[in-house]
Amino acid sequence: CLLAQRVKQGDMQVSGVRLDSGNLVQLSQEVRSLLPEVKIFASGDIDEWEIARLQRENACIDGYGIGTKLVTGTSVNGVYKLVEIDGIPVMKNSTGKVSYPGRKQIYRYLENGRLKQDYLGLMDEDVSNQTEHQTDDFIKLMVQVVHNGEIVQKSENLEAIAKRTAASVASLPPEIRSLENPNLLPIKISDNLRKKNESLKATSF
Which residues in the chain show pLDDT less than 50? Predict the structure, then answer.
């Protein structure tokens, strides 16, 4: 390679090489063999799973450029299901499409800053006596942002958002954060929500 020869001879300096297409494992290994002191940077629709694959296959890459997969997220499918009419809890009770009644909240229990259990309960329900763990704290994951068309939640600045997000990710156990065969933490249903669900099922037709 003429470039590698000129670098070795001191005729020119190269601080880095960018790879954005092709077989990144093979190309990075070839570049490393020719230019062992040069930093190798890879990009091109890379996400965390692709990075894990490249590392697993011994790619010689020093840094990654994450753009498209970070900024442009996948689509989120949402389905509207009515849970309350004029303060009266309602539910859908068709086969395979059963929904839980009433306005709900997700309660996350933490122990030493680490996630232990999520509970799905009724809004403003006290589920502190239902946990099986000795917990230091619990938080409500859902926060009201708009009420009657008015914004009621003050926007956070980017620094606060980044700090809160980092703390939230750090609270997840390693076995849940794993990219390969992650463990799932089943969400428990609160006592009051379960009773409300069973009561409406018994009266449905």
Answer: none
